[in-house]
């Protein structure tokens, strides 16, 4: 059973940066696309960015040129990890961020809160 665990969220001031991590257990990210989604209060969950199995990336317009998605395949005992580097954060980026694997019918992480506020 694939499990995704996000970390790295928290409170940051406008203009600041955070890096989210998504560790994969029970499976591998090799050969599968991965993505980050987010859900703000009162809104539907929305796509933020994806990264393909070959490393190709896609970003939704609101985060383009500010966020970077990357992936790191496990070596030795380390776990496969997907990252989301978020720069120049604004209050509109406040949301619960979810990691997603496009393997099989899809797997979600539990989500992690990101709050951008002064």
Q: How would you describe this protein?
A:
The chain is mainly beta. 0% of the residues lie in helices and 49% in strands. The strands form two sheets. Strands 2, 4, 5, 6, 9, 10 and 11 form a seven-stranded mixed beta sheet that branches. Strands 1-3-8-7 form a four-stranded antiparallel beta sheet, with no helix packed on it. Strand 4 and strand 5 (46-51) form a beta hairpin. The chain is globular and about 40 Å long.
Low-confidence stretches: none
Order of helices and strands: EEEEEEEEEEE
Number of strands: 11
- Overall geometry comes to globular
The helical percent reads under 10%
Strand % is over 45%
User: Which oligomeric form is depicted?
Assistant: single chain
Q: Termini, distance in Å?
A: 40 Å
Based on CA atoms alone, the radius of gyration comes out at 14 Å
How would the blueprint of this fold be written?
Blueprint: E1 3-7, E2 10-12, E3 18-25, E4 34-39, E5 46-51, E6 57-59, E7 67-72, E8 80-86, E9 95-101, E10 107-108, E11 112-116
Parallel strand pairs: 2-11
Antiparallel strand pairs: 1-3, 3-8, 4-5, 4-9, 5-6, 7-8, 9-10, 9-11
């Amino acid at each position: 059973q694939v499990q995704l665990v996000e970390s790295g969220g928290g409170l940051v001031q406008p203009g600041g940066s955070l890096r989210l991590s998504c560790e994969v257990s029970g499976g591998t990210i090799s050969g599968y696309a991965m993505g980050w989604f987010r859900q703000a209060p009162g809104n539907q969950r929305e796509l933020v960015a994806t990264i393909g199995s070959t490393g190709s990336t896609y970003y939704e317009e609101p985060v383009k040129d500010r966020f970077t998605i990357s992936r790191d395949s496990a070596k030795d005992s380390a776990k496969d990890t997907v990252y989301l580097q978020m720069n120049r954060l604004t209050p509109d980026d406040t949301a619960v961020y979810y990691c997603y694997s496009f393997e099989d019918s899809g797997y979600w992480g539990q989500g992690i809160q990101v709050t951008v506020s002064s």
